[in-house]
Design a protein that fits this description.
mainly alpha
Length: 158
Amino acid sequence: MRRHVALLLAFAACALALLPAVAGAAQPRVSFPDIEDEVMCDTCNVPLNIAESPRADQLRREIRAMIARGMTKPQIKAQLTSEYGPNILPLPPEHGFDLAAYIVPVAVAFGLLVLGLVLVPRWRRRSRAEDGRPDAAAPPIDTIDERRLEDELAQFDA
């Protein structure tokens, strides 16, 4: 059991060690569909890729103009956030206190997984130990109960 927990912890440490390398990778040239689903229409309050309004069309034109100027995805998002506020992006920023929106659910899920890996074998061992048998089959009937059962069944046969 300890080996499983140690293996899970080692895997988590490796995954966390790779995060800065992945985050620092060079940003490729952005395409319009790539950024359209990561921007909200500020009047419709829906993602821009499904918004149907004149304001959504105006935002689309602005984004296309930014792409034509050669701006990267983070630059476009920063420009839109500075002009329209943080609600223009559907996801919270990935820094500061808002980082908790990403870390807390993953940490809770990981904690529940580890808790389950530790507690389930204990519960199974305890239930088997309380029964006094390795198998949790039905307990045997003693002779008095067996005699009474046969007497009652005999009444229905008659």
